[in-house]
Amino acid sequence: MRYPVTLFTFILTLCFSVNGLADKPSWAGEGGQPTAGEKEQHKDAMTSKHENKEKAKYKNEEKEKNEHRNKDKEKDKNRDREKQKESD
User: Fold this and answer.
1) Distance between CA 45 and CA 60 in Å, rounded?
2) CA pair distance 30, 16, nearest whole angstrom
3) Residue 22 has pLDDT above 80, yes or no
4) Are the CB atoms for 34 and 25 separated by under 8 Å?
5) CB-based contacts of 35: which residues, under 8 Å, 6+ apart?
6) Is 24:45 a contact under the CB 8 Å cutoff?
7) Could you tell me the sign of the dihedral formed by the alpha carbons of 52, 57, 58, 62, in that order?
8) pLDDT in tens, 51-82
9) Which label site among 9, 14, 78, 87 has the fewest CB atoms less than 10 Å from its CB?
10) 17 pLDDT above the threshold of 80
11) Averaged pLDDT for residues 14-41
12) First to last CA, the chain
């Protein structure tokens, strides 16, 4: 009986602690509302963060495609070499 209670408590703790790890603007937690400048600054920061993730994802996809292409080219070269050896 002790194990399920402990597991439930652990999961519940994780659920609530994740909120504390979220990115927050500088004015958060001060009790006041942000100014228009602070809102715009936070919006720009989050937008650039998202764009950077998209760029990194695109770069990784391109890198993987190029690696596959290079492997295919190398396989083709090896096949050609083997065919050449067989024909000689």
Assistant:
1) 23
2) 20
3) no
4) yes
5) 27
6) no
7) positive
8) 777 788 888 888 888 888 888 888 888 888 88
9) 87
10) no
11) 74
12) 76
